[in-house]
Amino acid sequence: MGSQLGHKWEGKVCARVTKASADQIWPLCTDFFNLHKWFPGLSDCHGIQGENGEPGCMRYCSGFSLSSEGAGEVGENRPISWAKERLVSIDHVGRSLSYDMLDSNIGFNSYLGTIRVVSNDGDGDGGCTIEWSFSVDPVEGWVREDLVREVYEAGLQGMAKKMEDSFAN
């Protein structure tokens, strides 16, 4: 890793939602213990401490597969990935929440993630944009750009579609 020592990897991805407003999408994002309802490949997410949606609460997430071979389905030679995450802060007015990863088997150290839901009312299209940004120590076996594309972009696009589809009835 040489030259990467001491440098954080940072990234931000966005997904547009056209069939639901920021006020509709935000409560789904704040349901901290139920991310598995929306995030692709996440089979389990449940609270392990505190009140859902309150700063300091913790969740356990598992089911996806994340390894130095990339993200993908759990299978032969692809162990189930897991993480314990804590809600650090939540701002209902600004529709933003931050969380950190306390422990995991995916090699993420000093991780901080932020989810923001921004209204698109100003651009005439309505709907909203979900932003997911992160900061993490370099992850062994990954290239930052691949991590952003395969985990964050793919995950957020899938999550936004599931959330949007839940309002299409």
TrEMBL record:
Pfam families: Polyketide_cyc2. InterPro entries: LFS, Polyketide_cyclase/dehydratase, START-like_dom_sf. GO terms for molecular function: protein phosphatase inhibitor activity. PANTHER family: LACHRYMATORY-FACTOR SYNTHASE (PTHR33789:SF15). This is Lachrymatory-factor synthase-like.
